[in-house]
Backbone:
């Protein structure tokens, strides 16, 4: 714990306050609206909860109540807009940051400052506190579970309370998204290491195991009562498992081997995941055989990160057949706090770091990493969300006449948001899934270029639709042709 005679005594609280303020500032200015596929689905179900029409269905997103209900409460209390729907992810991010600073205050202030800087300036953290996704809530819950074990392993907490918090956190993560199963091998390792080899924390693990099984069985019995199937949620996940460009279960054996060897490395290079990974790699190489006994509590974090990464590398996302997780790193955002804690513990104990870096120079570490939130803020307008919101309001929402709009996939799926989820006579058709619907005079063609997706043939479909309109003897009269494109068919 920091005392008055330590150099961090005066500056630590300002770092604590300052990084909380920085996260709030970044959350506000980097918010670029909705992506409309995953986040709109979550929002729709949250609105259904407030309208008392929500039910868990075969859509496996409806089972993610650990995300849906907090979001529903947020928009019920604060209204519905692009900021209020992300209050819950923001709160989870702030809680994660403050738990790191509590850890630093108790054990090592440099760990908190380093991990805090890297967390607030992390690409994935910024992305998922500004969008409605389950990644940051899961990151918080897994971190809490690991912190509970860490405190027990240090003999500094009541085992009954920690067992309850650990099991509740893992269960909360399970209710949020089943990708939390990636950490099952990690907690099995921690359990086996303590219970069968080190002969310690026995009572803690017994109580934790009882509570985890209790919560899981209780959840299964709910599905038995409501749906008649203990494994209803898992059945839905399997049923919703569709082949896409990102999946591997439907690919050749050669492609599968690539996924299990070098493709994850290429995935690390996209989206900024490589930064926390690079910071933590020295901590991985420093691990020795004796460290896996976890007699040094600080080794928990590199071991947790490494085991979780290996689990992600090979674990299946489907219980009926082998389907490794896509290499898109957003699915393992919850590993990032582990990486940062591992990196912070390593670098804070590095001899060169300890020699040359004093508390008064901590700001030097922050400066280069500020480039990441600065970049995210600078590109926050590239989705044209504010322009789209204004256009939708003026052109369609406030126009009482029924209108037909041919548009991109995101708008065709997400348009109810602009109507505040109220009923409308307007119809929206996705240009890549028209299913025989043809344009006629008075219709509109609206598309937002950043929302067009080549994977779904949007560009070809748009070209074919424009050609079809001209061949039918109509003209496309431009209304808006700047960032957005709106035409009237005449």
Residues:
């Amino acid at each position: 714990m920091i005392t008055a005679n330590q150099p961090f005594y005066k500056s630590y609280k300002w770092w604590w306050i300052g990084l909380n303020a920085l996260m709030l500032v970044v959350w506000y200015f980097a918010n670029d609206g909705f992506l409309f596929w995953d986040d709109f689905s979550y929002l729709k179900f949250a609105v259904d909860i407030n309208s008392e029409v929500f039910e868990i269905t075969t859509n496996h997103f409806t089972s993610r109540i650990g995300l849906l209900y907090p979001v529903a409460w947020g928009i019920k209390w604060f209204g519905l807009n692009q900021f209020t729907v992300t209050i819950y992810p923001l709160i989870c991010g702030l809680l994660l940051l403050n738990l790191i600073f509590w850890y630093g205050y108790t054990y090592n202030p440099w760990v908190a400052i380093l991990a805090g800087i890297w967390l607030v300036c992390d690409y994935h953290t910024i992305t998922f506190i500004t969008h409605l996704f389950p990644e940051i809530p899961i990151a918080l819950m897994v971190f809490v579970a690991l912190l509970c074990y860490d405190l027990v392993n240090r003999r500094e907490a009541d085992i009954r309370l920690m067992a309850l918090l650990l099991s509740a956190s893992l269960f909360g993560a399970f209710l949020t998204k089943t990708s939390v199963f990636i950490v099952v091998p990690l907690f099995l390792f921690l359990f086996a290491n303590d219970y069968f080899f080190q002969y310690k924390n026995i009572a803690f693990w017994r109580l934790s195991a009882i509570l985890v099984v209790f919560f899981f069985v209780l959840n299964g019995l709910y599905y038995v009562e409501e749906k008649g199937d203990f494994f209803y949620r898992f059945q839905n996940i399997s049923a919703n498992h569709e082949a896409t460009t990102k999946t591997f279960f439907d690919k050749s054996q050669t492609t599968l081997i690539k996924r299990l060897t070098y493709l994850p490395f290429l995935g690390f290079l996209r989206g900024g995941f490589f930064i926390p990974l690079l910071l933590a790699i020295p901590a991985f190489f420093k691990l020795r055989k004796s460290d896996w006994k976890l007699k040094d509590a600080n080794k928990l974090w590199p071991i947790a990160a490494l085991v979780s990464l290996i689990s992600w590398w090979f674990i299946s996302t489907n219980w009926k057949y082998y389907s490794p997780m896509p290499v898109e790193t957003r699915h393992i955002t919850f590993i990032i706090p582990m990486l940062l804690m591992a990196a912070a513990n390593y670098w804070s104990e590095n001899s060169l770091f300890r020699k040359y870096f004093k508390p008064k120079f901590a700001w030097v570490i922050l400066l280069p990493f500020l480039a990441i939130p600065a970049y995210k803020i600078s590109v926050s307008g590239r989705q044209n969300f504010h322009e789209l919101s204004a256009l939708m309001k003026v052109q369609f929402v406030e126009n009482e006449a029924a209108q037909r709009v041919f548009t991109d996939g995101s708008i065709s799926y997400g348009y109810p948001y602009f109507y505040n989820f109220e009923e409308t006579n307007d119809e929206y058709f996705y240009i890549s899934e028209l299913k025989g619907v043809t344009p006629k005079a008075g219709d509109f063609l609206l598309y937002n270029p950043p929302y067009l997706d080549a994977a779904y043939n949007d560009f070809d479909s748009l070209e074919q639709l424009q050609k079809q309109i001209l061949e039918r003897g109509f003209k496309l009269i431009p209304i808006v042709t700047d960032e957005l494109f709106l035409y009237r068919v005449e």
